[in-house]
Amino acid sequence: MTFKDLGLSDSRLILKDALKNKYLVGAFNFNNVEQMQAIIEAAHETRSPIILQAAWGGVSHFRKEIFPHVVKGGMEYNRFLADKDRTTPVPVALNLDHGATFEQCEACCRLGFSSIMIDGSHHEYEENVRLTAEVVKMAKSYDPDINVEGELGIIGGQEDEVISDDKRYTDPAQAIDFAERTGVDSLAISAGTAHGAKKFQPKDLIRDEKGNMVPPPLKTDIVKEISLKKPELPLVLHGASAIPEEYVKLFNSYGGTLNEAIGIPDSYVKAMAPTSICKVNIHSDGRLVFMAALRKGLADKSGSIEERNFLNLGKEEMKNYYMYKMKEVLLSSGHA
Prior knowledge:
With 336 residues, this protein is an alpha/beta fold.
């Protein structure tokens, strides 16, 4: 099975267009059908190209025997929305987020992913090069159109299976060497973002011009130096969720205990649009928004057992939030 069989778009073409036209493609993780619907609906209403993402834990949650059928159903829904509004389906790709092993990457190629990420960043450099090059060779032998994303540098934080107390910025010279020796189609770099909802400790924060405590600015010099030497290489920003304060408060006011949750300001991400950053991974925001709406709904309608209604509350909130992201932060609106 290939990604064309599932009705997915070519990830490489999506990233190439973003690189050319200076906007950011949102790569959004989903863990249930409602979240997938929310992402597709937001993309349809804003006319934005998107990349659906699943970590291996997400694939396992659905069961790998079921997962391709879920995705194919999502692509049928994409076509349904287009037919209903007399438009065309928005470009939708599917990426394995943080593939940890050769075997996971190979399995996802066979499941119909149009893009796979092999994360060898926790290895020593030469082992990362060897593993990534091996995955590139395997993926291209299966389907030359599969996008392979590597990672260089260590992005701290915790999300799904990705856990790191360390943070190591990407070395630009090493990034060029890595891209040339491995043959990756895109490269995730470490430039100041972090995974999860609790990305930073209070001691890591600085005061902005308004006196608010914020994370340090992203290392745009790293992006510029890589782009100068290899301008055709799409760069990827992981751990870019904003963790909006209003949703943290909503989540906590209905029984949640999400403390010291600090994200990446939207302004930091938006400023990357003119650079070679063209794919931005957003997962924790979706989780937070979905669960905040779900918690509120469960409290407001505590006598109801209509689970579909509660799931739809999460879906609608997530859809609206991602529409905002696509229009105001990623600047992808109107590019589909």
